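Anyone up for a design puzzle?
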């Protein structure tokens, strides 16, 4: 159905062992629940190692990013998940740096988290368990590419001035970038090579990346990219959806 901005939205989300899925929902004038939009993706290798509640939070964060245009500024909306302990996990006094970043992102929205048993969370459950995302059903030649690494030979960069003193409510931006690089296997491998250029660290890179490794450099904790010696080095944006959303929002503000 087409979105009706006069009616409240709600979100359903779920995570499996290998994927996350979510849907933006509304009730129509007759009280029938209808789908406005739905999204899903396969987890990255590092994400598959997250604890269960972190995977559920990952699905929720993914939903808020994908449906941001509808939900940001909404007076209040509900997020439904089949993980009952999620509300407790969000209030834990012992937060990892990743969790602290996520909570900072969640604070931009006005929503409540509600438990929805898995047997009733059918749509989100199905989206997070798409057969074409299941690694057990994939052959070695059918692996789904990482959407964040569209081309190993071309990094996601910006020429905007990244001010190391710009801060978020949790961590300085530079530190957030550094942490996000470490959580991304593609960029983490490049940084390990730049810090310790050995045959071993070089072998960990993909062939296209090895061919283009001279284009990368480090500016302290920041990874930079330049096409050649005449090109101005650009800061590589980590493959982190909430960081990218913050940068786009702040740049356009």
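Challenge accepted. My sequence:
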């Amino acid at each position: 159905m087409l979105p009706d901005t006069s009616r409240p939205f709600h979100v359903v989300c779920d995570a499996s062992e290998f994927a996350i899925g979510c849907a933006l929902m509304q009730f129509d004038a007759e009280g029938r629940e209808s789908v406005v939009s739905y999204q899903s993706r396969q987890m990255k290798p590092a994400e598959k190692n997250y604890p269960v509640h972190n995977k559920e939070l990952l699905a929720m964060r993914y939903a808020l990013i994908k449906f941001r245009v509808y939900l940001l500024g909404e007076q209040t909306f509900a997020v439904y998940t089949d993980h009952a302990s999620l509300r407790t996990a969000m209030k834990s006094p012992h937060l990892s740096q990743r969790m602290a970043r996520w909570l900072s992102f969640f604070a931009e929205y006005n929503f409540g988290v509600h438990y929805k048993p898995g047997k009733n969370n059918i749509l989100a459950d199905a989206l997070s368990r798409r057969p074409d995302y299941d690694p057990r059903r994939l052959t070695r030649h059918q692996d789904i590419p990482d959407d964040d690494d569209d081309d190993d030979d071309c990094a996601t960069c910006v020429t905007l001035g990244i001010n190391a003193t710009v801060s978020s409510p949790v961590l300085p931006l530079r530190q957030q970038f550094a942490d996000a690089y470490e959580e991304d296997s593609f960029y983490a491998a490049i940084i390990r090579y730049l810090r310790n250029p050995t045959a071993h660290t070089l072998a960990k890179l993909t062939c296209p990346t090895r061919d283009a490794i001279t284009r990368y450099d480090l500016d302290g904790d920041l990874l930079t990219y330049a096409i050649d010696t005449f090109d101005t080095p650009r800061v590589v944006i980590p493959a982190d959806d909430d960081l990218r959303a913050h940068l786009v929002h702040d740049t356009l503000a």
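A detail worth pointing out: Confidence is low (pLDDT under 50) at residues 139-171.
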